[in-house]
Amino acid sequence: MTPTLVRRHLPHTAPAPQTDLCARARDWAEIQERMLVPLYEAVYQRLEVGSGTRLLGLDCGSGLALLMAASRGAAVTGVEPSDPELLALAEERLLPDASRPREPADVRLTTADADDLTATDPGGAPYNVITDFHPIGCVAGDAEGLSARLESVAPLAGRGAAVVLVGWGPPERCATSSVLRVATKLADPLRSTGSWRPALRDDLEEVAQRAGLRPDGSGRVACPFGYADAESAVRGLLSTGLFDAAVGATDLAQVDKEVSEALQAHVRGDGTVWMPNVFRYLIARTP
């Protein structure tokens, strides 16, 4: 297994200037990312990801999903579009060191469009699985540019390769929706971008069809958000970037206060926080 991480520069909304990017990346890796493990496992099991899989992970973040695929024997390539702090954490996870002896990994960081990805492994076989586990259908405009990105990497995959897209489930089945609405309230008048919106039934299918992909099945996975306490919950949720517009419109202290208040409905008797959620995934196929 040879994991490859690729830095990809795309137009994006910069995080709020008050945010400590290194701390946020660490909070994502240590607190929040694990909430999506049931989703990763369900997708990999359904697609039988294993030693015959060559996987391209878009928006790979700090690399947990890549690590899980690699542990199943897959050859993985990770593309992180805009967050060097997350990419650095992915390196820590995927690169071997003295305490974690394994097959040497080749990690390359470069600007990556479709041509650059080919250049990192010119003799490699086509990818047979492409994933983007970054959930859409929660923030206004969060799917913007995704279809074009999928269309650009599709030629790197074999015919009929699986492309996995992920979205939030219906608000009534996602307890976290009540907390995410705080972002919309505080971000006003920046509601046009970066604010919460309810997921729509065909969000994923529309992205796939615009990219020229053929939908080929879907599923729903329970991914409850559980935290040791309210402070951890606030740190985890803010690490998603979903509150950046709110921080920019007000300040970090105000967002912290209002998110903490919204979480009180989900604090249990022992002080832990528990929010059941459902995420939906779509499997589409390349032409």
What is shown here, in short?
This protein is α/β, with parallel strands linked by helices and 287 residues long. Helix content is 36%, strand content 21%.
Q: What radius of gyration results from the CA coordinates?
A: 18 Å
Strand order of the largest sheet: 1-3-2-4-5-9-6
**Order of secondary-structure elements:** EHHEHEHHEHEHHEEHHHEE
The tally of helices reads: 11
Low-confidence stretches: 8-14, 101-111
Query: What structural category arises from helix and sheet content?
Result: alpha/beta
Taken as a percent bin, the fraction of beta residues is 15-25%
**Strand segment count:** 9
Largest sheet: 7 strands, mixed
Specify the helix fraction band. 25-40%
Mean pLDDT: 84
Can you tell me the overall shape? Answer: globular
First CA to last CA: what distance?
A: 27 Å
Walk me through the structure:
- The protein is of the alpha/beta class and about 290 residues long.
- Helices cover about 35% and strands about 20% of the residues.
- The chain contains eleven helices and nine strands.
- The strands form two sheets. A seven-stranded mixed β-sheet has the order 1-3-2-4-5-9-6. The chain has a two-stranded antiparallel ribbon with strand order 7-8.
- Helix 7 packs antiparallel against helix 11.
- The longest helix has 12 residues.
- It is globular.
